[in-house]
Amino acid sequence: MSDLHPTIASVTQRVIDRSRDSRQAYLDLIRREADNQPERSQVSCSNLAHAFAGALEDQHALKTNAGPNIGVVTAYNDMLSAHQPYGRYPERLKIYAREVGATAQVAGGTPAMCDGVTQGERGMELSLFSRDVIALSTGVALSHAMYDGMLLLGICDKIVPGLLMGALRFGHLPAVFVPSGPMPSGVSNREKQRVRQLYAEGKATRRELLDSELGSYHSPGTCTFYGTANSNQMMMEMMGLHVPGAAFVQPGTKLRQAFDRAAVHRVTAMGKHGNDYRPLGECVDEKAVINAAIGLLATGGSTNHAIHIPAFARAAGVQIDWTDLSELSSVVPLLARVYPNGSGDVNHFHDAGGMGYVIGELLDAGLAHGDVIGVAEERGLASYGREPWLDDDRLDWRDIDGSGDTEMLRPASDPFQPDGGMKLVTGNLGRACFKSSAVDKSRWTVEAPCRVFQDQHDVLAAFKAGELDRDVVVVMRFQGPRANGMPELHSLTPPLGVLQDRGYKVALVTDGRMSGASGKVPAAIHCSPEALGGGPLSLLQDGDVVKLCAGTGELSTTADLSDRTPAPDPAPDMGTGRELFAMFRHLADEAERGGSAMLASAGL
To answer: Where does [4Fe-4S] cluster bind (predicted)?
Structure first.
């Protein structure tokens, strides 16, 4: 293992210094919580009876306080393919707990919406705030003070960050995240993208499009492209919150079940009454947060994590911003090309060496913190730099002998590109993120008259009418957290991609989000401050020349905005439950701080 890269060391120290007071306040909180949590034997018998009444097979063990009791927080539903396997997990986890003298109870469930189902629909405006709801639901689940550890069952976009944010407020307890793995590969991602663009051009029927999509999303498990859900799993490995190697093993396999058993056994071993106490709040420190960012950059992960990392870091008293991410990106090389940044999916990535290879390369090059605490039996990140396998049905790990596919995974000494491809762009239009790793370098700079929109369906209508057949910067405003919940605008990718393929210089500038599955078209996303309330995007008019450049980090307009009146703030739309989230929109802070109403209102 090489010495830590000086830029990573300096960014980490800056985050530590910036976070000193908030981090200490957080550690004080979880230590008080650990001291104040009563032993179950001292809790009122009436309270205990309520808690144990439904646990028929474990009542005796619970009554006699025979061992640790593990709280399971599950985001199960069978509308999300990634979460469908969790339906049968509780009974299995209880069996695994009994093997080591422990018990397990489902402490509670959280909502789990699918961004893939709501893309381009009204329900997407609930997506970002579902993260706060998940965190709150996790808090409710764990509020019963009956648990000695946590097993957190979630995979997809807002669900893992939400589970982590909620669980960190109970950070005196140990925790392990338990993924269920990706579905097998289906129709190739390039073929899926091809049919989508043909449909956008009117050259494919709706039936052909649906058949293509069903060929990609076809069975239980995580979607196989490298979007936000799979980036979540990568980050949990980089932070040491999985059993090592658990991220991308498919559901229903013996290896997957071995990981589930190991997760239960590990969380039981890390309780405060044992000799290996590892509370979640101490595992998620500044170095673990930096590692999450490094993994995101090294693998070309989802841009959504430019919002989620600051949010879950704040829940642990750690303050990180886009300047930190951009500086890390300048020295962390891109080691992986997984669709949409390459042709292969996460199954191909895993088969080529996956997270074990990436982590081993980063550690050997001094590009990650090896001294995070983690949940592996051997403390530190080194355990995550190996390949999992079954040795006579026993979970074990072995060394990885190089990349199995250099078109997908490359060593740190010969990366796909020397930087992580997450650029901060700034100027008189604010601060925004640009995922350069997904965009051909020849398209990093676009300077063109803009066309301003406030509804993504209007963009599609203008495209179909031929109004965008030119060099154009599409400005999609009033899409920030306080305006409408900051929906993803992934449905804009096919038409803008068509324009780009026709030879036009095209870019997107928005205070909304783009999916982790988006790419190809240059985009300045998460623009802060958002348009609502008079942000710079609210001052733009059709025809203003806008420049976006990933090379120089510029987001600006040549128009004089000083004397302009902001476009009026739109009234929030009603229906699809959006009115129920008015409080969240009102209280949310800027995207760079995580776009969270819950954290903002709590003063965190």
So the answer is: 156, 223
